[in-house]
């Protein structure tokens, strides 16, 4: 039961086709303004449209943080070819009705893949726009049956030093782990991505299956997942364990809460070249309308 | 001269996509790393001469000037291309310790940069000049700590630079003590 999250505007009819080519699932934080503006053809809407213009395939696949393949931005593109992604299986365990080891093909046979164009905001204050292909995580979780006591979802990346040279350096406490609150995991914006630009997702971007949570800093969107556990207590998360005051468990994009070592108020959009202007960072990375309600009553400074 | 040309070449690469899709960060890091390598090369001249009999003294001032050039280039890329706003720069210097110490390291190097010419050496006198240029020691330590501090996760490379810095300074400390004894 996918496609729960679609724009409630039907501007396909009125927008010139070249503007929405491949962008039927365009999801902008300010969707209403965008849609309304396009009808009027305002400069503001044009600007918003350009702001969601996806980065090139080359940009998305050569500038990556995937420390299992090295800490340099170009290391993953250079080294990730050694990761064997087929066969692939994901162990799903914990508080679920149907625990077990699910093959990639088995998982894919029961979900609907769709395109989602999302902003990606890295904690290092750079950003991209990525046209993902993937399915809603909720579909997979509903299939395995989440039990009543489950409150969090824990994820683990593959831990294969022979195939992932970066694992030989103790940059983090391997394997890479991340976690979400159950309501975050079930949110329709939260997807498991298996492709980019309609192609199979490249290894350096987290093949064959990675999480994408567009309102959180990029490192929450864990790559090359081999294990998903439904648990009662807040699970371990690698960066959070490394430095809790710098990398909170929630890690929602928030221009008002700085990283202790740098400002999060603005970001550099990849692809702008050497003289690109910084852009203001948006609350929840522009997805405030969709996700603010998840955090009602929470002090976002404390639970950063 | 060759070093300055190399800096210009890096800038050309960054402007034309040769440093990847995020040229600002790449250029900033390339200049910064070159700067610390040159500072360490300058600090290595004396121990090389004393312990290995390799005399590179005639190159030392050129190495130092070049190091200053790369620190300045690193700083300018950070200020003009990365942070872009004076107010944001100042906020960083005040609020972010690794920026603060980077800036402190640069301040240490300014008097060295402006006095690295024959006229200044003559005016100041060689003894005072040499004393003044001991500011390279704190600058090196500040630069290395600056590098360690900005790393994400436990990374070996910046720690190696810091270790080399401390080792090069330790050789001096030991030699001074030996001379005093």
Shape of chain B: globular
Q: Average pLDDT of chain A, to the nearest integer? A: 88
Helix percentage range of chain B? over 70%
Topology order of chain A in helix (H) and strand (E) letters: HHHHHEEHEEHEEHEEEEHEEH
Rounded average pLDDT of chain B: 92
The helix content of chain A is 10-25%
Strand content of chain B: under 5%
Radius of gyration of chain A: 19 Å
Distance between the termini of chain A: 32 Å
Biggest interface found: A-B, 30 and 29 residues
**How many angstroms separate the termini of chain B?**
42 Å
Reading off the top of the CATH hierarchy, the class of chain A is best stated as Alpha Beta
Rounded to an integer, what's the Rg of chain B over CA atoms? 17 Å
C-alpha geometry of chain A: globular
Relevant CATH superfamily of chain A: Oxidoreductase, molybdopterin-binding domain
Integer count of domains of chain A: 1
How many domains make up the coordinates of chain B?
1
Give, in order, the helices and strands of chain B: HHHHHHHHH
Count of extended strands of chain B: 0
Question: Keywords, please?
Answer:
heterodimer, A: 304 residues, alpha+beta, Sulfite Oxidase, Chain A, domain 2, 7-stranded mixed sheet, 5-stranded mixed sheet, 12 strands, 20% helix, B: 181 residues, mainly alpha, 0% strand
